[in-house]
Amino acid sequence: MTLPPFAAGRPLDVIGLGRLCIDLNANEIHRPMEETRTFTKYVGGSPANITIALARLGEKTGFIGRVSDDQHGRFITRYLEERGIDTSHVITDKSGSVTGLAFTEIKSPTDCSILMYRDNVADLKLEPGDIDAAYIGSAKALLVSGTALAASPSREAALKAIHVARECGTVVIFDIDYRPYTWTSREETGIYCSIAAAKSDVILGGREEFDLLDAVYETPHGDDRRTAERWLRESAGIVVVKRGGDGSTVYARDGRSWTGRTFPAQVVKTFGAGDAFAGAFIHGLLHGWDIERCQLFGSAAASIVVASHSCSDAMPTAEQIEGVIGRYANG
Ligand SMILES: Nc1ncnc2c1ncn2[C@@H]1O[C@H](COP(=O)(O)OP(=O)(O)O)[C@@H](O)[C@H]1O
Ligand SMILES: O=C(O)C[C@@H](O)[C@H](O)C(=O)COP(=O)(O)O
């Protein structure tokens, strides 16, 4: 697999970095948001969701980020604490920033969209001075979301965190997590995410997200292996290309690859799959599982979350994931 070894004996397993937001998921589903009257509030933000997934699976987790100085910020911080996630480096931003909101529209199980309100959000106020090398060195892995690179000073903070992690022997996991609402251009996304990807040990992204990075170097070609080999020539030991309901393919530096299945699900909404997959996949890596099992675990976790109304709240336990795998073991 050619991942650097996870450092043993560290107090934390994974520290997430980036977006701590709120999902407002429509309660009246199968209609456009113009006809929605009520929403259910959940903690959101992909890196938050993945960290919550890892905590749910028993990993010792922490988070580096900023929250707004209001009820939403306190709700998020309390939610993390209630799930055993260390919040010593979750900073209350005092600049008058707000919490990012993700309004989700569920027109049908396969037609979902997210309306994001992200002006003056606290998560992008993260500063390089917030990055604590000793804290990052206390974890086996650092999970960085690409959206943390979308604006300064968060951009510089995230790049500093990656640099610090590499200096500390902390494995860097980069989830491209492209959200167009935050960036000024696709080119900007490709450039900054390429910088982060080149310094990461594990990279996760969808085909379209990798196209943004490929575009920095060549005309996007949609060839997963060719894309993965670019990053495997850099720092990556593992590249995961996610393809929605078509599953995923994982590429390793030694040339091996694995194409993973999906599990049947009564789909409520399509989003949340990637975060659930990532949390369970990373859990497997931390426990030294082979890639196939990591992938299977991730896919089963995703099938549970797409069948749920929420993302964060729905993140499954290992028992729930094993239950899905056992139920469909033969096909
Ligand atoms: N409709 C679905 N039913 C079951 N599993 C799914 C479904 N959509 C995605 N998955 C699983 O979740 C993984 C990640 O989903 P994907 O949609 O590619 O990520 P993202 O949400 O980040 O775009 C897929 O590789 C697959 O294993
Ligand atoms: O990342 C956000 O700000 C929105 C998420 O909280 C939301 O749950 C979602 O889109 C999940 O992302 P996905 O798992 O990549 O589909």
UniProtKB/TrEMBL annotation:
Q: Which InterPro entries match?
A: Carboh/pur_kinase_PfkB_CS (IPR002173), DKG_kinase_firmi (IPR022841), Myo_inos_IolC (IPR030830), Myo_inos_IolC-like_sf (IPR023314), PfkB_Carbo_kinase (IPR050306), PfkB_dom (IPR011611), Ribokinase-like (IPR029056)
Record keywords: ATP-binding, Kinase, Nucleotide-binding, Transferase
Instruction: Show the CDD domains listed in the entry.
Output: KdgK
**Domain of life assignment:** Bacteria
Q: Catalysed reaction per UniProt? A: 5-dehydro-2-deoxy-D-gluconate + ATP = 6-phospho-5-dehydro-2-deoxy-D-gluconate + ADP + H(+)
Ranges that cross the membrane: none
Q: Which HAMAP family match?
A: IolC
- Tell me, what does this protein do in biology? Catalyzes the phosphorylation of 5-dehydro-2-deoxy-D-gluconate (2-deoxy-5-keto-D-gluconate or DKG) to 6-phospho-5-dehydro-2-deoxy-D-gluconate (DKGP).
Question: Which named protein is this?
Answer: 5-dehydro-2-deoxygluconokinase
Q: Which gene encodes it?
A: iolC
